[in-house]
Amino acid sequence: MIFWNDIDFVSTLNSPFMALAVIGDDSPSANNGGTGLAYNPPNNINLDALPTELLIKISEHMNPQQRIATAFERPLDYMNINRFHLFTEDAHRQLRIATYEGVTEEQERRRRPLVLDAIAYGFSIDQIAQILDIYEQICIEKQIDRHVFLNSAFPDNRPAHLPPPNPEVQHIRRTVLSPLHVAVQHRRLDVIRYLIERGANLKQAILYPERTPFQYALELASRWWAHFETYSLLRTEEYEQIAIELVQHSVGAAFTDDFQGISLEMHLALQGGLERTAMILLDIFKASNPVLNQAARTSLVNIRNEMLDDVLNSYPEMPGLFGYLLADGARYFAGVSMTTIALEAGRIDMAVYALQSEAQDRAGDEEAYLLSIRAICVCALHDNNARAVQRLVRELAILQDDTSINMILAFAISAHVNSVRIRTWILDNTNSANGSTLRHAICFRHMATTSFIMHRLAASGQSVDDLLLDDSPFVMREENGWVWTQTPLAFALAQENYHAASQLLSVGANPDGVPANIRHRVRKLRDRCRATLIGDAVQFIFKGRQHFQGPEPAPTQAVALDTLNYVFVRMLDDPAHPLPPYVRFGLPQGDLEADHPDNDSEWEDYLIHYETVIALAL
Fold this sequence. Notes:
Layout: H1 52-60, H2 64-73, H3 75-78, E1 79-80, E2 84-85, H4 86-96, H5 105-110, H6 114-120, H7 125-141, H8 148-151, H9 179-185, H10 189-198, H11 213-221, H12 233-247, H13 264-272, H14 275-288, H15 294-312, H16 319-327, H17 338-344, H18 348-360, H19 366-379, H20 386-398, H21 402-414, H22 420-429, H23 435-443, H24 447-459, H25 488-494, H26 498-506, H27 516-530, H28 537-542, H29 557-573, H30 592-595, H31 606-617
Antiparallel strand pairs: 1-2
Helix pairs in contact: 4-7, 6-7, 6-9, 9-10, 9-11, 11-12, 11-13, 12-14, 13-14, 14-16, 15-16, 16-18, 17-18, 17-19, 18-20, 19-21, 20-22, 21-22, 21-23, 23-24, 24-26, 25-26, 26-29, 27-29
């Protein structure tokens, strides 16, 4: 005789029957008054000799996974219609469950059909198909819908003499998942495809929450589940692949039927960062609604515009969808820079799409485009933003907006050691070595950048005495329209950047191209140096920027003095370029004594004013 305590079911064993040990002499049963039976290996036990009641008892003490595995391992014992059939018994039990009595979610989970556990525990499609075939045969015999178990749509079985649960509800829908929902939950795409082929209802919604399989897949991938599980990109991608499989069967919509907002499916896709799914929903909508009335078109414009903000704040980010919406006509508020908002959110790819869109609409919204350029300029002040600036400058190069690139480079030059990578990259990868950027390099006293641009201009065949470009927003003109800082050398001397002036003179700049008032400023400086009124030559030339040349070493006093002497010789003592006379405007022509002590430019505070203008722009 076999006593119940002689059977020990351990869930960790590979086979449910590994624990079915008939204990021998060495291990007497606690309920066995005498010696136990001789030991037999579990796989050698002949269950044919056991009564059916004991087989059922054994099955009841297994978990669902073990019960299903045991049935397929021992079909003669557990799939035998003449003895005990596990799945036939389960089908009858499911159909007897009262639909007029409510139960808790946990109770419902414990009594759910075994086919759902077969899907959840990874049983093969052939095994799942066998179970569904058995369920379907039972439904046919009972003359009810053969897809009851395929869709978990159990019919009302309330006896006629019992009143309904309440006046509004004739029977209580079971909160059990459908096979399709379970396949979605466990990311079994092969099972999903099989169930769809078998005829599963793609619009069947489960209770709590009321979700179709497609909506359920989107919700499982959304950020809402971050409260329960750690975010996983792989899991999200698997759920999105499932959602894409389901949406191919036209089970989702992009907008509400009245075109007053986005659909639940689109909301879940945006919430979960499911870019491909959202774009497919939009494609399906466009294909199925080629013609819309004016009211619907107006509503959709507003909805798409509102979607931009959701996409900007999505996680993971969806740059492709952002670009899709922009290409489809979505726009932010007039005068608002989408590029700026994307950069502030750290969404570089989206910033590129936004810049493309704003460049395309520049004629209609110039302000937004200029705000975007300004935002890029601010990013160029620090190398931490190098990746963003490089992407956007590359886009500006494609758009052939050299003026904006020059402005961005000017900001990078002004940042000195904070923007070495950005400054170097722009100079190396764009056509930005020109008079405008040379002007900024001279103004901010960056030796290496000044030298680089000068040699690049020389290599391109441009004369060092060519007029500076005047496309910079920082260029100042006198009231009569004459710009007296026309050449790089004149500008360098007006800025008192004698190091840049020495570089220009060394590569052939012509002193005769410098206005007389600027050359007399040089003469006055030499007089001050001879009178030992210039104590720190480095500070005088570089105005405190000698320590921001980075990675180049700071200039020394010897270098500064050599620089000044070279400029004095070339500008004042070269017989080939004699110093011209100069009479300051506004003074009597013959009053030389009043003129020479203050021999300077008409704009005596030009240097301070120029840097103030740039500082305000920054």
